[in-house]
Amino acid sequence: MAPEGAGTPRSVCFTMHGIAVSGGIAIGHAHLFLGMSTEVDHYAIPPHDVGREQRRYDRAVKEVRDELKELAESVRHSTAAELAPFVNVHLMLLEDAAFAEAPREIIAEQRCNAEWALRTQLDELTAQFDDIEDEYLRERETDVRQVAERVLTALAGSKRRLAMKPTRQDTDMILVARDLSPADVILFREHPFAAFVTDMGGATSHTAIIARSLAIPAIVALHHSRTLIREDELVIVDGTQGVLIVNPDRAVLAEYRLRQNQARLEREKLKRLKTAPAATLDGTVVQLQANIELPSDLDAVRASGAAGIGLFRSEFLFMNRRDMPDEDEQYEAYREVVEGMKGKPVTIRTLDLGADKALDGQESMAENPALGLRAIRYCLSEPQLFNTQLRAILRASRHGKAMILIPMLSSYAELNQAVAAVERAKEELKTEGVKFDAFVPLGGMIEIPAAAIALPMFIRKLDFLSIGTNDLIQYTLAIDRADDAVAHLYDPLHPAVLSLISGVIRMAHQAEKPVAVCGEMAGDVRLTRLLLGMGLRHFSMHPASLLEVKQRVLSTSLPDVAPLVARIMKADDPEKMVSLVDKLNA
Ligand code: PEP
Ligand code: MG
């Protein structure tokens, strides 16, 4: 057998470059992730269970039919009316015997599970497409695949999961995918891969953010990795530089193993800072808090020594399932986090669904989802859903120190409605005799330029502010944060962005309201001194980068930093700006 990395006849060594989104080095074997429709379980059904398996299939088809009918109805009355015919094509396909009957027959003939029967039928159908000359008809293959995908998702039910090949230890596996949704990546908690790389995606997409929070190296926007890399090939992922090396030779492999060990040692050293108070050399105290997606992140938060949770992205409780968590289920999740933090603050952001974070089976039909019914806009359009969440948060508030954070504020009316909704939920609980913290602070995320510019309008009604730089950059620069085609233009150091951030910090100080940054800038150690120099004293980031940021805070002298930061704020030449930032970090 050829030695690892020595090169078999087809093992040509090559390098690919993408966007580095989650640092560190991983070395492992590639697993090509093809998506749910192509990797399904296969198991035998005893003869007496064939009827039951067929009914399970029928139920999934019915569920998809209902879903599509609802979708057809909603798009008909929306700005996306032109999508209705496409939804109708899917409905027609679903009614066809190819979907409604054939998989049932395969279940009976092959005595196999419904997923496998559908997969077999899908292979059969797509093979027929290969012979079709007519371009229009050939394009229908995508529709057939999408319908099959929906049925498979329905079959998976709330147990939706990535079907992985169990041939290797997951920890030795590098996932290579065309694209991954945030919901897919959150499932990685159950499958601890060594790293992942994708052909699409941007640096601050939620997919990238979760990779960072899991502390696994990741590269996005590689463009052709799915076509160039083969299953099981040895790859090195350098998530810091955004470099992927396929079939490395011995020398390269040895070099990266060395770097991997050095990084491990650095991480070990950083652990010593866990209990050190975060303060600058001149004695200014800085709050370093953590961002989480699920209660299961608490272990990582504790290991980081965070002073609290500055952002709990509650929408992740709603993903990878077909139903919504009810009030009690949400209460238990919030309570677990609030209690688990033992009196330290826990900032629970109300649902920020929409854009790249969709509920299962509810992909947005809007033309511009990032500008559409997202976050607080969505919650205000679904008052019952919002009320359920607010009640659950308020109920959890009596178990520690909870704070409510409203995402995506852009208008005064929205803020008023959100405040009224919180008051209503409090009144209800009071009437029912349910205990809660009557003084639970209410904060707003400043992530739309309109809110940053017209801050006085919002600040009066809020107890605290949190700057969501990921969206603030996206909306200020008109750059879709998840689109790799414009990723090179996504620039946290753009003067317009820096001016908005420093303006918000200044106005918050004047109004004596606490202000944090909870976007990815807070966890970027290159920017720590710049933010400190702007007056920021409260950072919230994924736990994996907290100790590194703390180390930078501990080695910073604010009086030394001030003149350089002032020059950066005045700089209008991007190159000069970058060199000043480098100097700041020297
Ligand atoms: C942000 O926009 O900076 C933020 C923290 O929220 P999210 O990344 O979840 O949109
Ligand atoms: Mg945001």
Number of domains: 3
Q: What's the average pLDDT? A: 87
Q: Indicate the percent of residues in helices.
A: 40-55%
CATH class of the largest domain: Alpha Beta
Number of helices: 23
CATH topology of the largest domain: TIM Barrel
Please give the number of β-strands. 16
Which outline best applies? globular
**Termini distance?**
48 Å
Rg, nearest Å: 25 Å
Instruction: Profile the largest sheet.
Output: 8 strands, mixed
CATH homologous superfamily annotation of the largest domain: Phosphoenolpyruvate-binding domains
Unreliable stretches (pLDDT < 50, length at least 5) are 1-9, 158-167
CATH architecture of the largest domain: Alpha-Beta Barrel
Structural class: alpha/beta
The strand line-up of the biggest sheet is 1-8-7-3-4-5-6-2
Name every ligand kind in the structure: phosphoenolpyruvate, magnesium ion
The fraction of residues in strands falls at 5-15%
